[in-house]
Design goal:
Oligomer: heterodimer
Largest interface: A-B, 37 and 30 residues
Structural class of chain A: alpha/beta
Number of helices of chain A: 6
CATH superfamily of chain A: Class I glutamine amidotransferase (GATase) domain
Helix content of chain B: 25-40%
Largest sheet of chain A: 7 strands, mixed
CATH architecture of chain A: 3-Layer(aba) Sandwich
Number of strands of chain A: 15
Structural class of chain B: alpha/beta
CATH class of chain B: Alpha Beta
CATH superfamily of chain B: Aldolase class I
CATH topology of chain A: Rossmann fold
Largest sheet of chain B: 8 strands, parallel, barrel
Radius of gyration of chain B: 17 Å
Shape of chain B: globular
CATH class of chain A: Alpha Beta
Number of domains of chain A: 1
Radius of gyration of chain A: 17 Å
Strand content of chain B: 15-25%
Strand order of the largest sheet of chain B: 1-3-4-5-6-9-10-11
Helix content of chain A: 10-25%
Distance between the termini of chain B: 11 Å
Distance between the termini of chain A: 30 Å
């Protein structure tokens, strides 16, 4: 573990509470059934439905941490939601085809232009990069970040199971989680090099790494745009904490 | 640090009920797979596997309901197998909330099914379940192991190690390797079988069959298993998942 001090902040309770500021017009009562009840604003989250597999898992996991979730391909709803989740499983090319068929890249761009949060998960993270290369076939991605998604060099692929990550100290997504926290990964391809050049005027994205055979990008936090290679919706309480952090501190 | 070796409890489900009982004190209904799944999750299971042993096809809908209700409550990966014959079966299970589906007999009858499913749903969610045993009276196979059907009672003459390699070629994302000789004996995993399959595939291998005590798991991992699966020792409360993990940890194996 390179950054043993990477994780910091408050302890995340087992039942995660996700309330933002009080007093919104959609104020409601939420929180853990047995714990204190806070008035709070429930975030409206759209899970983008473009034919990829794990939509219901993402929907359930987000609901578990208190979001008001709609699974839809409706562009207006997707642009207007407080937060947009772009899931994805299977092949990069198939996901890009599906994403394009619902105008996904444009939806993402319109949201980011307005500083509205987007969270990519697994292949939903991969398609945010410039390109994917699977079995010799190169496919253009959304191009939000430079870099290539390619096959990992490891003895056993897919990389399937629970692994640790190395998050930068300022990470919001991993705040409060101990350094040895494990998340569920299932993928054979990944981003092996972070290619964004450092700039004096732009705040650099926070890149979290994991290791399987070699280092690869496990998460990126870049203003309104965030993404994880692992599946927070399948990562038990640890995944719930990441989603909760995203809802509270990125979506707000 | 790297990816942790997974410890996976398997629940045999017949017409929506867990086949074997268990003695957890805090359990209201040991026969309810949904409640059992939640208990295993709380105990640190890394994934769950449901094996649908329902004989009558009329009761298959019950399993879908079980999968749906489990996925509502349990936020770790869920694999479902048993009686999966067509891409439509897989589609239905995935939509109900399964993350992976294991295919067994149907792939023996028609291996191309594996490729079709891997292309359509992605390799990551297609598991090839191989019920294998040492060849007894039939013609020998190169590895000495053959694929069986009907719960290990009927040999097919197909080399089990070659079959695992073929599954990977066709695009499956994982091999669930069940030793039918070891299954139910609680005398330990078939280490040689795991080693042989490990040599020919580089997708993850789940070792299954024969777990009886904590010390049985480490040799399976050292033989190359990426995950270990057991049913009865967990069902009957003989072993707790945490005990198995502590045993592996003592052998310098990374666990969650």
């Amino acid at each position: 573990m390179r950054d043993s001090s990477a994780f910091h902040g408050a302890h995340v309770p087992r039942s995660v509470i996700t309330c933002g500021g009080a007093g919104s017009e959609r104020a409601s009562r939420c929180g853990a059934a047995a714990g204190p009840v806070y008035p709070c604003r429930v975030s409206r989250i759209v899970v983008l439905d473009y034919g990829s597999g794990n939509l219901r898992s993402a929907e359930r996991a987000l609901r578990r941490v208190g979001a008001d979730v709609t699974v839809t391909a409706d562009a207006d709803l997707a642009v207007e939601a407080d937060g947009l989740v772009v899931p994805g499983v299977g092949a990069f090319a198939a996901c890009m085809t599906g994403l394009r068929s619902v105008g996904g890249p444009r939806i993402i761009e319109r949201r980011l232009a307005g500083g509205r949060p987007v969270l990519g998960i697994c292949v939903g993270m991969q398609v945010l990069f410039d390109r994917g290369v699977e079995w010799g076939e190169e496919t253009d991605g959304c191009g939000q970040w430079p870099g290539t998604v390619e096959r990992l060099k490891a003895d056993v692929l897919p990389h399937m199971g629970w692994n640790t990550v190395r998050a930068p100290e300022a990470s919001v997504l991993f705040a409060g989680l101990p350094a040895d926290t494990r998340f569920y990964f299932v993928h054979s391809f990944g981003v092996r090099r972070w290619e964004l050049e450092e700039s004096d005027v732009l705040r650099p994205p926070l890149v979290t790494w994991a290791h399987h055979g070699e280092d690869f990008v496990a998460a990126v936090e870049n203003g309104a745009l965030a993404a994880t290679q692992f599946h927070p919706e399948k990562s038990g309480d640890a995944g719930a904490a990441v989603l909760s952090n995203w809802l509270r501190d990125v979506v707000g | 640090m790297g990816v942790a070796v997974r410890v996976i409890p398997c629940l045999d489900v017949d017409a929506g009920r867990v086949v074997k009982g268990v003695n957890f004190a805090d359990l209201r209904d040991a026969g309810d797979p949904v409640e059992m799944a939640a208990v295993y999750d709380a105990e640190g299971a890394d994934e769950l596997t449901f094996l649908d042993v329902t004989a009558s096809s009329g009761e298959r809908a019950t399993m879908l309901d079980v999968v749906r209700r489990t996925a509502e409550q349990v936020f770790i990966p869920l694999t479902v197998g048993g009686g999966v014959r067509t891409p439509e079966d897989i589609d239905t299970l995935l939509r109900a909330g399964a993350d992976k589906v294991s295919i067994n007999t149907a792939a023996i009858a028609r291996p191309e099914l594996l490729g079709e499913c891997a292309r359509r749903f992605g390799s990551q969610c297609i598991v090839l379940s191989v019920d294998a045993r040492r060849v007894q009276d039939g013609p020998p196979t190169a590895s000495g192991f053959e694929v069986t059907t009907h719960g290990g009672r009927r040999g097919t003459g197909i080399d089990a190690v070659e079959w695992a390699a073929r599954g990977q070629e066709l695009g499956v994302g994982e091999i669930l390797l069940n030793s039918m000789d070891a299954d139910g004996t609680r005398a330990g995993f078939d280490i040689e079988m795991i080693e042989q399959v490990r040599k020919v595939v580089d997708v993850p291998v789940i070792a299954s069959g024969g777990a009886g005590k904590v010390d049985d798991f480490l040799p399976a991992v050292r033989a190359g298993a990426d995950a270990v699966l057991a049913a009865s020792v967990f069902h009957f409360g003989t072993l707790r998942i945490s005990e198995v993990k502590n045993g592996l940890r003592a052998g310098a194996v990374e666990v969650r």
